[in-house]
Amino acid sequence: MMFRRLALIGTGLIGGSLALALRERGEVGEVVGYSRRLDTRLAAERLGLIDRPADSIAEAVAGADLVFVATPVKAMDAVLGELAACLPGDALVTDGGSVKGAVVERARAHLSAGQLARFVPGHPIAGRERSGPEAATADLYRGHRVILTPIEENRAEDVARIEAMWQATGARIERLEVAHHDHVLAATSHLPHAAAYAMVSALARLAERYEVFRYAAGGFRDFTRIASSDPVMWRDICLDNRDEILVMLDHYRAELDCLRDMLESADGEKIEHYFHEAKAVRDALYPVAQANGANPVSEADETGR
Amino acid sequence: MMFRRLALIGTGLIGGSLALALRERGEVGEVVGYSRRLDTRLAAERLGLIDRPADSIAEAVAGADLVFVATPVKAMDAVLGELAACLPGDALVTDGGSVKGAVVERARAHLSAGQLARFVPGHPIAGRERSGPEAATADLYRGHRVILTPIEENRAEDVARIEAMWQATGARIERLEVAHHDHVLAATSHLPHAAAYAMVSALARLAERYEVFRYAAGGFRDFTRIASSDPVMWRDICLDNRDEILVMLDHYRAELDCLRDMLESADGEKIEHYFHEAKAVRDALYPVAQANGANPVSEADETGR
User: Fold this and answer.
1) B302 vs chain A: nearest CA distance in angstroms?
2) What is the pLDDT of residue A217?
3) Are residue A51 and residue A141 in the same domain, yes or no?
4) Is some CB atom of chain B closer than 8 A to the CB atom of A218?
5) Cα B242 → chain centroid
6) A198 — contact with chain B (CB < 8 Å)?
7) Structural domains in chain B (count)
8) In chain A, whose CA is at the least distance from the CA of B188?
């Protein structure tokens, strides 16, 4: 058994699924859970995600040797502030936030040097359409990537323990620099979400939008699926990773300008070449994704915590 | 039986599926098919999509009272040119092209006044991952939209016959002005395809693209699915509907600029509102799409003929 007692701060899909996976593997003794909302805590207990609910972060982490912060990124500032006052001396802490730079900044602002050393930031890239305790499953992370972004303060053996913990869930662990994680996710997740919201907005502004949308078919549906993601989560991700997203937005705008020029000049050869290159890259990406054992994914995938 | 003999110009997914659907409903007597490639014609015969292959367009349409042009839009110029020389006097003609303005222009350039009057342009919005005769099915059009774009030269009863023909396949028929069709499709299909190709290209240009793509998850996969569409078809659609696509591209770029400004000024309230509005529109679109009985769709949906 890796951990004596797991404290979940946030008992929804992400936290609950980790608890189920570790329990199934016998890697955790007791699971105590705290959520801001009472009904979420009680649902988590009723569903067997946690052994008992706690009425405060302090009560949840008392006696815990592992703390998993699985709240929306926006809430982590307050959570880390409270943790600083009640974290047991031997407890390891990790999180599931979609943006690492901002989380590490908040950790540095709130945690003591000793606490910071035991905080190993992470980001499980997994999700489902539904969220909340009811959506939690023991195999949510199986075959999915979990990116750990250790900080210089971390001790190698603590990072190794968090990595082993995630390996027990069947996830594929990667390590990235904090800034590099935010750069990569801005490109593969944050930019596409922003672009999808903008696409829907562009059409919604058309005078004949109601009619236009009647003819939206599969391509449009797939393309805009991520525009159904939670607006508050994505607002927070955009604010927390603003600089990287702005850079990627500018790259994307430059591509659209370049494509617009080819179209303007009706350069069929260039357009075909451009589409051909993009298709080749995208098609090549697929077998890779399969080989990586990525589960079938949903619009809620990487919708951000 | 609606038609004595159907001539398919193009015996792939789109043409073959129409033939199967009409035959299943007993709405067509004989089906003769021509494709530029001999193996496509022979495959269509072997698969029972057509009763016999023809070695030329002239041979295919001889004695036909319905001609369905189901070739890529680019080929339609040559096809319409040949049809002008061999079209039986009583034959109705329709097509499956993704862009109607350019097709009608070519029809006007090639067909006689009498032939033009019997050409009722159309666009079935349906497709599959796979194409070619092997992919044809009798129910491809069931529950999908078929947009007819009658021209002023058409006689009401001829348009009604083409409409009844498509109704026999289980499709939901709409009528739009030619220019309006191209405007609507530029918004719901052509722009998203261009934007998806540009998104893949933007990431592919990053120095660390190989690493970036390793972290691409479900959101990115859905968002870029249509970037796997056929580059030649999409080159032709872009060229044929250039003006409308340019207008939509500018709308889209304006949205991205607007989102970029909110992000630049870190205006969380505006960003949340923007995302919220887009999500509301997109979520509302779904039940509509379901009520319309649209089949589950694929990356090849509306990839253009």
Assistant:
1) 7
2) 76
3) yes
4) yes
5) 16
6) yes
7) 2
8) A216
The shortest CB-CB distance from A198 to any of B188, B197, B259 is to B259
Answer whether B266 touches A (CB < 8 Å): yes
Does an H or E element contain A125, and which? Answer: strand A122-125
Distance CA B145, CA A218 (A): 12
Residues of A in contact with B222 (CB under 8 A): 222-223, 225-226, 297, 299
pLDDT for B194 equals 96
Cα of B63 to nearest chain A Cα, Å:
36
**Looking at the structure, do residues A142 and A160 belong to the same domain, yes or no?**
yes
Does the pTM surpass 0.80? The reply is: yes
User: Given this model, what pLDDT does residue B129 score?
Assistant: 63
Check whether residue B67 and residue B205 sit in a common domain. no
pLDDT tens, B89-141?
A: 999 999 999 999 999 999 999 999 999 999 999 999 987 667 899 999 999 99
The enclosing domain of B215 has a CATH number of: 1.10.3660.10
Domain extent, residue A166, equals 3-176
In chain A, what is the greatest distance between 2 CA atoms, to the nearest angstrom?
68
Are residues B143 and B196 both part of a single domain? no
User: What is the model's pLDDT at position A299?
Assistant: 29
Helix (H, G, I), strand (E, B) or coil at B241: coil
Task: Kindly report the number of other CB atoms within 10 A of residue A109's CB atom.
Answer: 11
Instruction: Quote the minimal CA–CA distance from A129 to chain B in Å.
Output: 11
Lowest mean pLDDT among A109-113, A129-133, A138-142, B187-191: A129-133
> Are A46 and A67 in a shared domain?
yes
Residue in this structure with the two tokens 């979990």, named with its chain if needed? A146
Cβ distance of B282 and A224 shorter than 8 Å: yes
Pick the residue of B176, B177, B222 with the most A CBs within 10 A to test the interface with A by mutation.
Answer: B222
Is the Cα dihedral A271, A276, A277, A278 positive or negative?
Answer: positive
CATH number where A68 lies: 3.40.50.720
